[in-house]
Give the backbone structure.
Amino acid sequence: MTDFLHVPVLLSETLDLLNLRAMPAGRQAGNKVVDCTLGLGGHSEAILKKIGKSGKLMAFDQDETNLKKAKQRLKKFEKQVTYVHSNFENLKLKIENLKFGAPDAILFDLGLSSPHVDKPERGFSFQKEGSLDMRYDQTQELTAQIVINTYDEKKLADLIYQYGEERRSRVIARAIVNERKKHSITNTLQLADIIKAATKGKIGHHPATKTFQALRIYVNRELEVLENALHQAINALAPKGRIVVISYHSLEDRLVKNIFRYYTRDCICPKELPLCQCDFQKKLYLLTKRPIIPTGIEVAQNPRSRSAKLRAAERL
Ligand SMILES: C[S@@+](CC[C@H](N)C(=O)[O-])C[C@H]1O[C@@H](n2cnc3c(N)ncnc32)[C@H](O)[C@@H]1O
């Protein structure tokens, strides 16, 4: 199983909160589930086992390599799965076009899969030499290399600050611009060294951690895409349907928390209005007041789970 080296995070908590069940023999329709981030199919495999033969899964991944590997893994469930090689930003469109119907459960397990980090040529890791790529979808044009070598200093500093929450963004952006006057910056270790030298190293995280996070989020439009997709997912869910989101950094988690909260409100009128004038209807019940995090045992067995935060809600 060396090809499936991605351990699904918070698996039993996810399955419990998705509230999946198999239908008794003779009943036609089982649970309809959408896995927005198929990856190597770890969560999907467990979901398919749980929903039984009458259940259906729609599975998205924008990374073709992962999608192919997951297909191999889930071969025995072939008839139950619809694979979608697309950004989950197209969730509503795909559900409608493929006549999937209202899902009973939707899962987002965000971010990178282990092969992204382990394969230096994808450019996500600052610890391994690779080209500055960082695209999940390798058919898209924008790469981290284009950003690093063509954006002006202010734009670079702003995006490193906004998406990496990096306080030293200006110093880092200046160092990048000075370096690229001499030669273009084309690989991950070269960029990591420039950041390290500019920040004179720091205690704790590697000094390039936040800049690499910022570039990845920016190149893949991660926050914008997630925001769009969460609205679509919540509105698409069947009554009593469940949504589970596992995120890996505070910017994502904050976004999930705020969008879930928005749909638990009865009214979205500005506070100044004396009377409610909106027709807004509450759509969600929160199942997790605080995010669920992995146990110490899970983190020890799978260190990549350490930053995971899971939030779940039920459609009213
Ligand atoms: C953390 S992995 C999922 C791992 C999976 N749950 C498993 O158990 O194998 C996240 C996956 O989502 C994909 N992904 C990230 N953002 C996406 C997006 N906006 N649209 C579609 N797929 C996306 C990545 O390519 C990656 O394969």
Q: What stands out?
A: The chain has a mean pLDDT of 94.
